[in-house]
Amino acid sequence: MPFDLASRLAERRAAHLYRQRPLLDGPQGPLVRVDGRELLAFCSNDYLGLANHPEVIAAMRAGAEQWGVGGGASHLVIGHSTPHHQLEEALAEFTGRPRALLFSTGYMANLAAVTALVGQGDTVLEDRLNHASLLDAGLLSGARFSRYLHNDAVSLAKRLDKAEGNTLVVSDGVFSMDGDLADLPALCAEARSKGAWVMVDDAHGCGPLGATGGGIVEHFGLGLDDVPVLVGTLGKAFGTAGAFVAGSEELIETLIQFARPYIYTTSQPPAVACASLKSLELLRTESWRRDHLNQLIARFRQGAAEIGLSLMASPTPIQPILVGDSERALKLSALLKERGLLVGAIRPPTVPVGGARLRVTLSAAHSEAQLEQLLEALAECWPQVQADA
Ligand SMILES: *Cc1c(COP(=O)(O)O)cnc(C)c1O
């Protein structure tokens, strides 16, 4: 019996690291039915509340009527249809980049961009806390791979000095488990001075950040020369599915020619692109969602500080409560669930050992009253897990 899966699973369970999938019985929204119970959820990445927006649903329905369901083939064969093309043009305009290329998932966009740009003899430098898809992409590329200290331009500079070949510096824009912003002005300046390129994965900034939702590059005012490779995803604040890489004409043509995760996969259903086009329009023009979200973020941080919760340095809708121990994080999540609230406990290996946390995420779809409900429940439950410490 070479595969002892039962012991592997038992070990994971014993370490309080076993994962289970809550079964959602209905659309995304603040109020969800999960495992047969109605709960108030603070764990979705639908930051602007667009995943169940009537106009986005209507756009997808109309898209299916006009374009059918399946993408049919890869983009290079016969799968690249008008809605995909229109979405790429709209995303290029939105990001202020010459071109954008559409992917079915962010994971694939990251694999594609990194592996098409660097290989053997090159160097890829990544923030230690980067998303798993970026770390996987770096390893898959075959380039020399090194991780610098979180958000640390000095640590990056040391590695840049030793880098060989084409060098790609890769960072999350908003760190997915901490909610903090990449210090892009410093990191980009360092990379530029050494002739390296910067790639930013702005899965969590695109939509919530920036005056028009343009994400971290809009927030810091960074152009193509600072961030030659910009990735955004559509499954989070856009409320739909897919991702894009935005950059120069040559970058996009390089991906079309050489990126295997782009070439060897079926295009996303065109109706999904129709939905994303509608989301993009709502997200750019209706800034009240960002304003409301920012009010919720400020109120949460103020309320959490009063309770004495250990928050992280996050100005974004990702507001983790650091617990430390996995078992206590699970307990806090369970206590909240007893009170009708759903907040996921994030444990290693998704976060560093000893860094278990409740990943609270806020959405423009939450009301102020719902946020107060969360704060009241936390005020009751937090002392109970503190007593176990
Ligand atoms: C979610 C996420 C991805 C993956 O995007 P999908 O479209 O869900 O595959 C990539 N990078 C970061 C930082 C993410 O949070």
UniProtKB/TrEMBL annotation:
It catalyses: 6-carboxyhexanoyl-[ACP] + L-alanine + H(+) = (8S)-8-amino-7-oxononanoate + holo-[ACP] + CO2. The keyword DNA-binding does not apply. It is an enzyme of class 2 (transferase). The keyword Calcium does not apply. SUPFAM superfamilies: PLP-dependent transferases. Residues 38-378 form the Aminotransferase class I/classII large domain. InterPro entries: Aminotrans_II_pyridoxalP_BS, Aminotransferase_I/II_large, AON_synthase_class-II, AONS_Archaea/Proteobacteria, AONS_Proteobacteria, PyrdxlP-dep_Trfase, PyrdxlP-dep_Trfase_major, PyrdxlP-dep_Trfase_small. It comes from the Bacteria. The modification N6-(pyridoxal phosphate)lysine is found at K236. Gene3D superfamilies: Aspartate Aminotransferase, domain 1, Type I PLP-dependent aspartate aminotransferase-like (Major domain). CDD domains: KBL_like (cd06454). Pyridoxal 5'-phosphate binds at G106, Y107, S176, H204, T233. Keywords: Biotin biosynthesis, Pyridoxal phosphate, Transferase. Pathway: Cofactor biosynthesis; biotin biosynthesis. Belongs to the class-II pyridoxal-phosphate-dependent aminotransferase family. BioF subfamily. Homodimer. This is 8-amino-7-oxononanoate synthase. It comes from Aquipseudomonas alcaligenes (Pseudomonas alcaligenes). The gene is bioF.
